[in-house]
Amino acid sequence: MNLTKFSRRKSLEVAIGSTVIGGNNPIAVQSMTNTATADVAASVAQIERIADAGAPIVRLTAQGRKEGEAFEQIMPALRRDGYSTAIVADIHFVPQIASIAADYVDKVRINPGNYRTDSGELEALIEKCRKRGVALRIGVNHGSLARHIVDKFGDTPQGMVASAMEFLRRCREANFDQVVVSMKSSNTRVMVHAYRLLVEAMEAEDMLYPIHLGVTEAGNGIEGRIKSAVGIGALLADGIGDTIRVSLTEAPENEIPVARMLVEHFAAREGEFSVTYPERYSPTEYRRRSDVQTPIIHSEVTDEFLVLDAVSTNPTAEWRAAILNLECEKQPVVIRRRYEGSLEQVAVCAAADMGQLLLDGLADGVWVDAPQLSEQELTEIELNILQASRVRISHTEYIACPSCGRTLYDIEGTLAQIKAKTSHLKGLKIGVMGCIVNGPGEMADADYGYVGAAAGKITLYKGREVVCRNIPQEQALDRLIEIIKENGDWTE
């Protein structure tokens, strides 16, 4: 990592249909459908809406044979309608479905946690991808690491990296380089550290595979946008990332303007900033720099804090250098910058700029200067940035998936209902997940979980433990509230 100036990480070019990522190509944005993949007409219509919103790449779940075989009809239907959109099949649990989908799509995403290392299934898939010119994404999920990885490394960023590297080495051994890699987590600190550790590991072995960025289960509204911007922005500021997906529990088309906003925000990162004490910086572990235990917002600033204004087009590097140049290493610092634009624009850009300083433990507070917004709006933005950065929990956090073709209930509407009943519970984390594929794993650090189990059925969790299994959805919210009350976490 270059601490003094912005430089984009060097990566190989990978062709995903007619879209090429990596190298000197622009960062590509993408989304994922939430229609049933086997419903060809609905899936094609939604892909086209996402493409019209500006995404050159769209991913669909393929959890079973009928979903994998649906691509045989989806692909020609899109092409007949004049869409060259690159299509990605997302595979979970059943490696054989990857082989079926690879006959039709432009890229296949697999989870290393679902493959046995001695099965030969990965090598067979690589050969099929090579013959058809299909790209492959090694998609590591924090919550679904293979047992042998967890046994050795635990559920950690280091374990995520070990999982990815194991599969990347096998791709290299097969002389296959049309590979993309991702390290997804709903915890922004875990996510950022995992990607940085991955880059270090790949550099040590001269690997230049392009990187897909994303924060899983970010939620919706301003909160979801800020959480995504904190994680994705911290890495884009490092020059890491060749394609991004902003995961929101909303219509997939809504993700694209946010992703494009992030890409445009990082298009110009100029300036060089000398760093006097680089040894104070620890990019792959969280280390509080000062003695301030709870970072603050602008209305809480007192004389003990040094306020640092950023004025360049590379505020993240400017702040970082200024903090690492302080003679008094533990001087409490608040980072401040003026932002123009709408509430959404200010929230996304400020989170993308400031998040890294909080995730790395360098900053002690944030001050978003945007006179066009109300005091309440500014406070909401600042508190959400601190919460998304995992340094100050001020309200209920919802680890909510964006839904996909595996989701068997209206997750967007359900999330709104759960928020209406529980948003006053300060400090709790509630997972709202569409299905059991990622649900139990990705909400592993949630206090309570609401997970789709089957059509019309919900399973409720307390931490990682199942409390109620397969109960009717119409009873699930009331039962969730009862469980929270039974455990002493409810306040009126």
Could you characterize what this model shows?
The protein is of the alpha/beta class and 492 residues long. It has 15 helices and 18 strands. Strand 17 and strand 18 form a beta hairpin. Helix 1 packs across helix 2, helix 9 packs across helix 11 and helix 11 runs parallel beside helix 12. 52% of the residues are buried. The model has no long low-confidence stretch (mean pLDDT 93).
Number of strands: 18
Low-confidence stretches: none
CATH class of the largest domain: Alpha Beta
Number of helices: 15
Q: How would a crystallographer describe the biggest sheet?
A: 8 strands, parallel, barrel
Kindly report the average pLDDT value.
Answer: 93
CATH fold name of the largest domain:
TIM Barrel
Straight-line N-to-C gap: 48 Å
Number of self-contained structural domains: 3
Largest beta sheet: strand ordering: 3-4-5-6-7-8-9-10
Indicate the CATH architecture of the largest domain: Alpha-Beta Barrel
- Beta-strand content estimate: 15-25%
Please identify which CATH superfamily of the largest domain we are dealing with: Dihydropteroate synthase-like
Q: What would the principal axes of the Cα set say about the shape?
A: globular
Structural class: alpha/beta
Radius of gyration: 22 Å
Q: What share of the residues lie within helices?
A: 25-40%
Task: Label this structure with key terms.
492 residues, alpha/beta, TIM Barrel, Sulfite Reductase Hemoprotein, domain 1, 3 domains, eight-stranded parallel β-barrel, five-stranded mixed sheet, 18 strands, globular
